[in-house]
Amino acid sequence: MKILMVCLGNICRSPMAHGIMRNKSEMLGLDIEVDSAGTSAYHVGDPPDSRQQATAAQKLIEIGDLRARQFITKDYDEFDIIYAMDQSNYDNILSLARTEKDAKKVKMILNESTPGKHLSVPDPYYGGDSGFELVYNLLDDACSVIAKKIQDGTYR
User: Fold this and answer.
1) Phi, psi of 36 (to 5 degrees)
2) Which CATH number characterizes residue 128's domain?
3) pLDDT at residue 127 is higher than 90
4) Does the pLDDT of residue 128 top 90, yes or no?
5) Residue 12: count of CB within 10 angstroms of its CB
6) What's the pLDDT at 36?
7) What is the tally of structural domains in the chain?
8) Rounded Cα distance, 76 and 146, in Å
9) % residues pLDDT > 70 (the chain)
10) Alpha-carbon 14 to chain mean position
């Protein structure tokens, strides 16, 4: 299974989700690949925000090796599931869908931990350090649900 995490710039939320999911996959021995991207090209080639890296490091998750890239239509061919961090990015991802099959791959990540609520992971970029901790907690909960479903064979 190949999972893509997507936010706006690919330097805060999606690399954190990428790192958390990659860590859970390694710990549980899951056969999945994880990547991340942004719907904008603002930060292409940049590492994750230093504040997000510090938050991840406190949780023993390494994300400093990741580099921002932009979501492209070909990602629909490469990935089984595409998780959006918020409604705006969800809409942007869907705008590139070529078929209904493409569109069905796109999900709001927090619907995993809070089904049907369509909640957004807040963008911590312009806030204080507590925003990065909140993002970690929200994504850790969602990724735990995803990992458990994959491990149990109940992921759909």
Assistant:
1) -145, 160
2) 3.40.50.2300
3) no
4) no
5) 28
6) 98
7) 1
8) 19
9) 99
10) 4
Q: Which helix (H) or strand (E) holds 101?
A: helix 100-104
Give the span between the Cα atoms of 156 and 154, in whole angstroms: 6
Integer Cα distance of 61 and 25 in angstroms: 12
pLDDT tier at 143, thresholds 50, 70, 90: very high
What are the tokens at 151?
């491990």
Query: Alpha carbon 62 to chain centroid distance?
Result: 15
Give percent above pLDDT 90 in the chain: 94
CB atoms within 10 A of CB 77: 9
Question: Is the predicted pLDDT of residue 12 greater than 80, yes or no?
Answer: yes
- Per-residue CA distances from 146 to 22, 57, 111, 149 (Å): 12, 22, 10, 5
Helices of type H across the chain = 13-28, 50-58, 75-78, 87-94, 100-104, 129-152
In terms of residue numbers, what domain contains 129?
2-152
- Determine the pLDDT at residue 129: 79
The residues assigned a catalytic role are: 7, 13, 123
